[in-house]
Each structure stands twice: as structure tokens, then as C-alpha cells.
Design brief:
2 domains, 28% strand, six-stranded parallel β-sheet
């Protein structure tokens, strides 16, 4: 089978790899759609991110959906021909964190396409994938396989909402309107946010933010004062979802958060300097959000029931053999939101 293998920065190859066979409790899936994630782009452009570096060739990819072709023994509830979204979250279910229900912090996590451990965890950008049956969630009739492949990044934002607590009637700020920021808008709206304001430095992505449900958008590169106006009376927003990883976005958001507001950090960047006096004086609650686990089932359900519409965020589908072009397009924010590969 063909797989998308990263060897080093800018060294992406389509290679023949050997497929696995479905064992007990497993299924073999013909992968049909795979979304290119920000972490995939970090491996492609830089050979890793932070202290995580490629040390051996690795199949990329974890935003996937496809059709079941083979059932292993003992599998129930699934059938050959079922279309499924596949969760890449594969915790050990035995470590202390798994036993506490914090599977996203599993000490032995096997998350597709991750160079954190050595040997690396091979990813899912391949024509055939053997997965545990419990990773697979059925896709409803009428929902495209490309929409189903959004379940993974949508799960990331649902976990952030889970960490933030109730959004019912809350005023929400989203900073950074790439795929994760835009999906935060969908997640916040689905969970009862009263008002959503989104910021970015590019008009093209802000248009997408409006399309998926933001009430107002602000280009902070051109009109930073429009965001600053929300700082009156110690702030306006109850919750901020920070998806840019940019220090200026964090600082600007802290200025417009209400006292006891919540800053949810999703964006990954370098070390940042924070205004501690402001955080203390306004009693700001800063929280991180890392991956997901149980939220994947909810993500598929919301997409299946048409409670959210992810279609506006899909801006390109490339054939597997054109993977390099797909990665180049995905890295160009001026023309792409979410790019997927077709297998």
C-alpha cells in the first residue's frame, strides 16, 4: 500500500509499506480522507516542534475516515462497508492517568503520527489501516467522508470547551481563526455561547469565521483598537479561546477578559511573557487544553446530526500522489483553511 512518510524537513515521500492484518477486536479500514493538521505541517516544514524531533522516518496523519473492509474476530456493532471516523487516541487504559479518566495524559499513549516516543508512533496517512474496533465511529448516511475526517480536530475544540466549563449565555473571544480557532467557534456556539468575537491578522480566514458562526470579526493587524475597546469596565469577555500561539494575542486577550474570566490556551508557540500583575488583579484563570479522548464520539455525533457544519472549512482535496503539493497548500494561510488528502 502507499503511505505518506516524512524523513526530514521538506523530505516527504510516497512510499510502499506493508499493510497489517486485522486481529481479534480489530478492523481493517480503507482510508479515504485525511486532513493535514498543524502538527503534520510542523514535521513537514521543520522536522518537528519544540523539543520533539524526527529521529526516524514516520508515516504522518491522524485526521482520518474511511470504509471498513475486514472484521477481525469478536468484533460486534460494525460491519464490512460501514463508513467510520477513526479516533487516533489510543491510551493504554492501565496507567494512573487512564485510571483517573485523564486518557489524554496517558503515559503510554499511541497517538497516530507522533515522534514523541522512540520508536515513533506511525500515522494513518496510508491506504489501509488496522485499528481497534472501539476507535471507529459510524458516519451517518448523507455525511461525506471528508466531513467525517473533521471529527479529530473538532474533538480538540470540544475538549477545550469541556475544560472551560459552561458557555451558556457567555461572551466568547476566539483569537486565531485557522482550523482550530474556527472549529472553536462551532463548538462554542453548539454549547450555548451568547456572543462570539473572533480575531486574526488575515481577512480571508476571518470571512470563514463569520461563515461558521462568529458574530463579529476583527483584523487586529489593521484595527487593534477595535479589540481594545472591549477593555472598558475591566473587560467584556467571559471566556477566551486562544488558538494562535501568539504572545500578542494572549496579552490583548487578557486586557479584554472580565475579572475571573477564563483563558483557554490551545495554540502552540514558543515561551511567552505574561503580565502577571494583570492576571492577579483580574483573577484570571489560565488553562491549557491538550488533545481529547471521550470527546471524539460527541464530535462524530454532532457532525452526523448536522448540529454543526464543517463544510465551509474544507478548502482543498488533493490526491495522495500529490501530497507534497497538498502540504505546501495547507501551509499557505492566504489560500487554505483545511486541506485533505484523498486515498
Amino acid at each position: 500500500m502507499k503511505s505518506v512518510v516524512i524523513h526530514a524537513a521538506k523530505d516527504l515521500r510516497i512510499e510502499e509499506t506493508n499493510p497489517d492484518s486485522a486481529g481479534p477486536g480489530q478492523v481493517e479500514i480503507a482510508i479515504e480522507a485525511g486532513g493535514i493538521c498543524g502538527s503534520d505541517l510542523h514535521y513537514y516544514n521543520h522536522g518537528g516542534f519544540g523539543t520533539i524531533r524526527l529521529r526516524e522516518p514516520m508515516i504522518l496523519g491522524h485526521e482520518i475516515a474511511g470504509t471498513i473492509k475486514v472484521l477481525g474476530s469478536g468484533v460486534s456493532g460494525l460491519a464490512v462497508g460501514d463508513r467510520v471516523a477513526v479516533s487516533p487516541s489510543r491510551p493504554c487504559s492501565a496507567c494512573d492517568y487512564c485510571m483517573k479518566g485523564q486518557q489524554n495524559h496517558c503515559l503510554n499513549m499511541r497517538f497516530y503520527g507522533s515522534a514523541m516516543p522512540m520508536p515513533h508512533i506511525q500515522g494513518a496517512f496510508r491506504q489501509r489501516l488496522v485499528a481497534e474496533s472501539w476507535q471507529c465511529h459510524k458516519v451517518a448516511d448523507g455525511v461525506s467522508i471528508n466531513e467525517a475526517a473533521f471529527a479529530e480536530p473538532f474533538s480538540v475544540t470540544l475538549h477545550a470547551v469541556n475544560r472551560a466549563g459552561s458557555l451558556l449565555g457567555k461572551r466568547v473571544l476566539v483569537t486565531g481563526c485557522g482550523p482550530i480557532g474556527s472549529l472553536c467557534i462551532l463548538a462554542a456556539r453548539a454549547h450555548g455561547a451568547q456572543e462570539i468575537v473572533a480575531t486574526d491578522v488575515m481577512d480571508a480566514v476571518l470571512l470563514k469565521a463569520l461563515e461558521v458562526g462568529a458574530d463579529r470579526t476583527i483584523n487586529v493587524a489593521e484595527h487593534a483598537e477595535k479589540l481594545s475597546s472591549y477593555s472598558a469596565n475591566k473587560g467584556y469577555f467571559d471566556v477566551m479561546f486562544e488558538a494562535s500561539g501568539n504572545e500578542r494575542a494572549v496579552r490583548a486577550g487578557l486586557e479584554v477578559l472580565k475579572p475571573r474570566g477564563i483563558l483557554m490556551q490551545l495554540g502552540l508557540g514558543g515561551d511567552v511573557s505574561l503580565p502577571q500583575n494583570l492576571i492577579v488583579a483580574k483573577e484570571i484563570d489560565m488553562r491549557g487544553s491538550f488533545r481529547f479522548h471521550e470527546e471524539f464520539a460527541l464530535a462524530v455525533d454532532l457532525i452526523n446530526r448536522r448540529r454543526v457544519d464543517v463544510k465551509p472549512l474544507l478548502t482543498g482535496i488533493f490526491d495522495l500522489n500529490d501530497a507534497v503539493a497538498a502540504f505546501e497548500a495547507a501551509g499557505d494561510r492566504s489560500r487554505s483553511m483545511k486541506v485533505q488528502l484523498s486515498f
